[in-house]
Amino acid sequence: MAIQTIDDEQLRFLIYSREYTSVKYTSPTCEICKNLAPEYDKLSKQQEYSSILFLRIDSGENPTAKQFLAEQATPLIVVYHKGVVVKAGSVTTVEDMEAILDELLVSVTHVK
Q1: What is the C-alpha to C-alpha distance for residues 96 and 112, in angstroms, rounded to an integer?
Q2: pLDDT confidence of residue 99
Q3: Considering the entire predicted model, what is its pTM?
Q4: Is 41 helix (H, G, I), strand (E, B) or coil?
């Protein structure tokens, strides 16, 4: 599934509209964000992550996202379950992103 680039208002709606959502918080000046963008896109298309909605939000254009990032470094991956943060972490590699998503998948299988 293609990644949706969203704004603050859409974020509030979308994290509650799906069971599992991964949001990549980025900054316009973040080189790591730019470098990891294609990798995040690839992850969103992998079969094992098909139950997760992938979103991207730019903290430079969205005040709520910017406030959320006040004490975090970008890129930040936040995984939500029905609107509740399950896992969040700053990432620097594709392996970091996979670890966060895989942790979600493990917790989902234990819940079912």
Answers
A1: 25
A2: 93
A3: 0.89
A4: helix
